[in-house]
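Allow me, if you will, to draw on your knowledge of protein folds for a short while. I have a record of one protein: its chain in single-letter code and its fold written as discrete structure tokens. Kindly check, if you would, that the fold set down in the tokens agrees with what the sequence suggests. Thank you for your consideration; the sequence and its tokens are set out here:
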Amino acid sequence: MPQYKAPIRDIQFVMHELLNFEAHYDALPAYAGTNRELIDGVVEAAADFCENELSPINHSGDQEGCHFDNGVVTTPKGFKEAYKKYIDLGYPSMSVPVEHGGQGLPGSLGNAVSEMVGTANWSWGMYPGLSHGAVRTVEHHGSPEQKELYLSKLVSGEWTGTMCLTESHAGSDLGIIRTKAEPNADGSYSITGQKIFISAGEHDLADNIVHIVLARLPGAPKGTKGISLFIVPKFNVNADGSVGTRNNVVCGSIEHKMGIHGNATCVIVFEEAKGFLIGPENKGLNCMFTFMNTARIGTAVQGLSASEGAFQGSLAYAKDRLAMRSLSGPKAPEKEADPIIVHPAVRNMLLTQKAFAEGGRALVYFLSQFADVVEVAEDAEQRKAADDMLSLLTPIAKAFLTETGSESAKHGVQVYGGHGFIAEWGMEQIVRDTRIACLYEGTTEIQALDLLGRKVLSTQGAMLRNFTKIIHKFCEANAGNPAMAEFLQPLAELNKEWGDITTRIGMKAMQNPEEVGAAAVDYLYFSGYVTLAYLWARMVSVSLEKLAGDTTERAFYDAKVKTAQFYFKKLLPRTRSHVATIDTGLEPLMTMDVDQFAF
């Protein structure tokens, strides 16, 4: 099982050299003073925790799994102790405003910590990870009394939170949920229904679990316009904030899953459980989007984590494993065979993982900066512009990075060969753990519809143009650098083509709206490859500048340029197949009668 090593140098490269986090924070009064020393201190401390506390219990947690006994869930050995240390180190409160008991540090810095936690032990990281969204939901939509009762314990990590959306008959279509909320005389509500696939829905890490639940009020409109949001604690909370009697919330079972065995994925049953309305009646989905957007960025982090973890394991093995001789002659003549890293096919897999991991890191951290602006910027127009950019990029990051993370995990198994299929090496666990990321918080197909339908076409391309203008200006600004030509020419061409294919899809959709569904997934992949190409081109620009100066890290920056060259020459051409598929349109998908599928 590979031991996780936090990629501190690359994290610092993205934060300080590519995205200039210190200047970004200084431009936001709420985060001013978050200097490099503080940033690096947080990253290094989190790296130590992840390497020495979480990574060692990753494989054992997967093998042991969670234990279920009559509604009680016990987490794998070591999970509870690691969670206590996580609380003692102050990580749950890191990115929460000071007025709510937090440390007031930026959410983007918290995402860097989340990346390391996720790569070291994704199953464990989901327990505190779900709480971040619950904190944000209560913080943004809760009443003063609700904030007083719930926030301090959620922020400290003494309590954890969940998101209860899905029902057995209602996955992504939340408009058909059946959980109901009946008003009580004391102003509370009786919540009755069953939710499934509730990550961290029951466990032994915290004294209480605060469920954020979607339900319908009596007489509510049908569909998504009739959904309200409720706080439903596992234990009722007394007026002084202490834990009271057990609420009528029961874990009916835990799922037997393909992966993330160390995290309890629960069926939660509410039997007239006491709940409290959060936000306006029938506006629950609007409020829940606060939670869901946080979760979607977190899911993008999982894709990044899968690429990083698979790359680390693959690289170590490829340097050590001996098999065959190089076709151009022995590279290790003193050994009985060459290490497999000399073979082009193996290098292709390793460089694919590396390109997706480092490109994905740049995308997640780039996205996180817009989230910071939305969260704390004082200027309303600045917040609106950042929110529009976040709206466009979130489905790209969530879907593209989880799909490329899954691809990287597959390559991890392939590099190991037969050993990759064996549990002790850890590669097959990454495949199993990360596969869920392509599904939850909206499948790749749902994200693709959201991107193309809601974010691009329904805004007449305005959101897309906001981003393509940024890419265009970058290409113009660097046009005078001949060393950038091999990156700028394909990027500029694809950036223009992005608008062109959008127009073609839009014209077809005017005749038949089903054309959007036919094109959406390939459109998302195209968008993802171009977005990463932009960020890789930026990384090259920074690296070339460093190489032109007096640096002692020439190998690091040279590797950046070479990885970018691989990305542009070997991965970016995948856009051609996606464009060709988009242009075939709806017809090949819909000509077969439903009954003919059986033949």
Summary: The chain has a mean pLDDT of 96.
